[in-house]
Write a structure and sequence with these properties.
Radius of gyration: 18 Å
Number of domains: 1
Number of helices: 6
CATH architecture: 2-Layer Sandwich
Strand order of the largest sheet: 1-2-3-5-4
Largest sheet: 5 strands, antiparallel
CATH superfamily: Protein of unknown function DUF1054
Number of strands: 5
Structural class: alpha+beta
Helix content: 25-40%
Distance between the termini: 28 Å
CATH topology: BirA Bifunctional Protein, domain 2
Order of helices and strands: HHHEEEHHEEH
Length: about 230
C-alpha cells in the first residue's frame, strides 16, 4: 500500500454530490471516484496512523480495510425510515483488543463535505454495559477519574458531548450526584468538530489526528477499562 499523502480535494466534493444524489445509479457511475478519492486514501491513512496508535496501546486495532477500521459506506436500512442507500460521510473507528462492533469503545474520525470530527465513544450500551457504566460513573474513584479525563479533553476543545438518552434518572441513584447527568446516557461520545482543515489534504493529517487521540486517550482508556474490549 502506498504512503499516505493526504485525502484528495475531491473527497468533500464527492460526498456533497453523493448527498444530493443518494442512489445506486449515481454511485455506480461514480465508483472510480469512490475508490480513488475515498477508499484508497482511507486505507493509506489507517495504515500510516496504525503504528502511532500502537504507542498509545498495542491493543488498538488499525486494520486498513472496509469492516476493519473503515466503516462501510452502505447504510443498513432494514430498521430505518430513511432508505437512502449510502452514508454521506467517511467513518473510521479504531477498536481496541477484542472489541468487535460500533457499540464498543473506539477512537473515531468522521469526514463529511463540510467538517472533520475527531473523538472517542461507544454508540450504544447493551444492558450489561449500561449497568457497568452507571456503576462506574458514581464510583468514588472511577467517577472522578472520568471527569478528570474529560476535563483534559474539553480544555483542548473537545466539548461536544453526546449520548444522553433517558429523560428520567434511573431508580436507585442519587439525582444530586455530581455525575447524575451521565446516568441518563445510553452511549457516550466526546468529540470536536472543525471545518475541513488544510491538514486533511496532506500527510500531516496523520499527526493532526494523533494529537487529538493523545489528548483523548485518558477518556478512551477509561471507556475501554469500564466497558470492555481489551484482550
Amino acid at each position: 500500500m502506498s504512503d499516505f499523502s493526504g485525502f484528495p480535494r475531491d473527497l468533500p466534493k464527492f460526498l456533497k454530490e453523493l448527498s444530493a444524489n443518494n442512489k445506486k445509479t449515481w454511485f455506480d457511475a461514480n465508483r472510480e471516484r469512490y475508490d480513488a478519492g475515498y477508499l484508497e486514501p482511507a486505507k493509506a491513512f489507517v495504515a500510516a496512523i496504525g503504528p502511532k496508535l500502537h504507542r498509545l496501546s498495542a491493543a488498538i486495532r488499525a486494520e486498513p480495510r472496509v469492516n476493519g477500521a473503515i466503516m462501510r459506506i452502505n447504510r443498513d436500512t432494514r430498521f430505518s425510515k430513511d432508505k437512502t442507500p449510502y452514508k454521506t460521510a467517511l467513518y473510521i473507528h479504531f477498536l481496541e483488543g477484542m472489541a468487535e462492533t460500533k457499540n464498543d469503545p473506539a477512537g473515531l474520525l468522521m469526514v463529511d463535505a463540510d467538517k472533520v470530527v475527531l473523538g472517542v465513544g461507544a454508540w450504544g450500551f447493551a444492558k450489561d454495559r449500561l449497568a457497568a457504566w452507571r456503576a462506574a460513573v458514581v464510583d468514588p474513584k472511577q467517577g472522578p477519574a472520568l471527569r478528570r479525563a474529560m476535563a483534559k479533553a474539553e480544555a483542548a476543545g473537545f466539548t461536544d458531548l453526546g449520548g444522553a438518552h433517558y429523560k428520567t434518572m434511573p431508580k436507585g441513584f442519587d439525582p444530586d450526584h455530581p455525575n447524575a447527568e451521565l446516568l441518563r446516557f445510553n452511549g457516550f461520545f466526546l468529540s470536536r468538530s472543525e471545518k475541513l482543515p488544510k491538514a486533511l489534504y496532506g500527510p500531516e493529517f496523520v499527526d493532526y489526528a494523533m494529537d487529538a487521540y493523545r489528548t483523548l486517550r485518558p477518556t478512551w482508556k477509561w471507556l475501554v477499562d469500564v466497558l470492555g474490549g481489551k484482550p
